[in-house]
């Protein structure tokens, strides 16, 4: 492509779900600089350390520049023919459910849309799942149970308008730093704003909090069930809202009230005084936003946690109003875009439901597809079990590194190694996953690719190219379309640009919709190349809203058959995996300056200075109990694997549990693949792995 060296290109950061706008520029000597886009409504010019270092991560070092078959260089035609013919043959011999795609919240919406269309509409299986399953599947399930749709009710402005922000299982300061900065700036203007952090660890986010509740692992359901009972007891309910806009309150309250204060204290690990103070603050503050992230979602009771939170907001009518609502923040840059196109094994495109025959019929007619999958496919953990036991015989992995990032990662690695046919599309030539691929397809990287992403507040922004494409790399959408054509579905995959795909995606969202489904960007169905190129960030459902946030449910009308939100009956269940052999709980998470398996951020020396090596945080009491000193090298073991890590002894850690970052791989540090230690236990509803509560042992090495 032609590069205008004098022009700054408006694009978005490829890391977290805040979705910050970035201005990227190439100087005459080829040097790339980035700065925050002052006009982007997510960040207004701010960038965090990762976003600021983007220019340091775009080089050709380690790039996959040509297609490869069995480690030899191949041409595109040969590679694509092999992928298409092997998938077709596998389907012909073993049926459509013998193949699978494992995709990523790093894909752009257009890529995601086509992968989903090919698998669900033309192959006829729903075996497409995503690493977003590891990120926010419990929120999706919780939203659908309560609202009848996967709708995020509020927006970022609500965080600035709230009088109380409750952060649950969210280290916003490190994991969504610009959102944290926005809250900190709002609090500076309005010192009366209160912030409560609910997290087993005293993270950096606690530094801004008025109250830190160091909750026991997975104590959140008990906490919010207790809150619901407290609200009822203390006359803090919005009875009119409950009566007019909800169903199931009495049953939900009855279940919530089963725990008395002492039982709640035992289940949450919090004192009765702490519980009382938090409950009192929540009850007294009408403008409350509850923000939750992986500490809620990555749990064997993740969906129940989400609904326990939503129950409290419905009971107080604090939803769909400025400065009030439950608010899930997504980890990945395009987890939301993936949800919009149905890029998960249990969803259809445009927020339609795979179990609903009318929805399937609608999607099939719209796509003119031979057969739309009629049952959910395998969710991530189950998908790799399917690879291991031979149900899946051909697997295509796009833009993700499951050999390092899936729970029980050694078992996933063994499954991929034994799979008869593995295709990987990636920007890198040698990740732990790419290494095991039979066919490697070079994909364009951030800066080279073009499309859209959706952030945590439903804002769709363009990601634009400003770099020439490296080697023979191709955009993911083009690779998928080429395989679709070669499988005999040419007419449905004859796109020439991402704008055509976006227009089709928008048209499907509006197709026979008329307000019956939440996701509708049908106004963009006739977008042309020029309009797409100039597309300003907008927040669905309202087009051209720019920074003025939109809210769902302002009128109390939901997407359930009766239009009412559903209270969910939830009973706190204790999940405590520890035993004498593994007496501690391992909690996994992120650090400020690294992203996922470090394939990009690991390139920046500046980012590596913050936390230079993998570590385990341990409370001084536990350190003394196991004879561990600060900075010792320790062995951290679970029933699934072990790692060698540097001990950081700190009272910020909750006694009885340890924290380990998930980023390091063997490429960066020997024996530090943390997800190899994580048990493949999942939430029974969402299928999201429980990566924050794993029985562990720690010993001095
Ligand atoms: Fe990128 Fe997230 Fe940082 Fe914004 S907050 S610059 S989206 S990593």
From TrEMBL:
The keyword Manganese does not apply. Its cofactor is [4Fe-4S] cluster; Mo-bis(molybdopterin guanine dinucleotide). It comes from the Bacteria. Keywords: 4Fe-4S, Iron, Iron-sulfur, Metal-binding, Molybdenum, Nitrate assimilation, Oxidoreductase. Residues 6-62 form the 4Fe-4S Mo/W bis-MGD-type domain. Belongs to the prokaryotic molybdopterin-containing oxidoreductase family. NasA/NapA/NarB subfamily. This is Molybdopterin-dependent oxidoreductase. The lineage of its organism: Bacteria, Pseudomonadati, Pseudomonadota, Alphaproteobacteria, Hyphomicrobiales. The chain holds residues 1 to 701 of 887 of the full protein.
